[in-house]
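This part of the workshop introduces the protein records we will be handling. To make this concrete, we reproduce a full record directly below:
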Amino acid sequence: MTTAKMYKQKGTGKARHGSGAVSQFRGGGMAHGPVVHKHSHRLNKKVRKLGLVSALSNKFQLGKLIVLENLTCDGKTSTLKKNFDKMGISNALVICGEKIDENFAKASSNIKNLDLLSYQGLNVYDIIKKDNLIIVDDALKYIEERLS
């Protein structure tokens, strides 16, 4: 697309025009075209922290918060599923500490309503989305540190 004059200024008997890319001409620009707007909201750190505290305390009050010493598994999805069924858990979010056991991660990846999350990625949406919240003991100190 060029920005050059359509034809010379004088001597043609036509009106003066500049670029052919303006909105008056066929194939030209659009006068008030679509504008991409950003509709996201940003929350203050204090408000985000308060929301996280509220979500965690709500899970605790409902008795849906479980703290485990460690996550060890043999890497089999079936045995992990049986263990969770014994505990009465079918829909859960597991919060891990610094090291995530590879066997547990591998076994849990195939269970439908079980999500595995690092303590750094802890957020209100994921906590509310799942019925139960399972926190590993070493992740608990990081969460307390983050909320204090």
Summary: The longest strand covers residues 92-96.
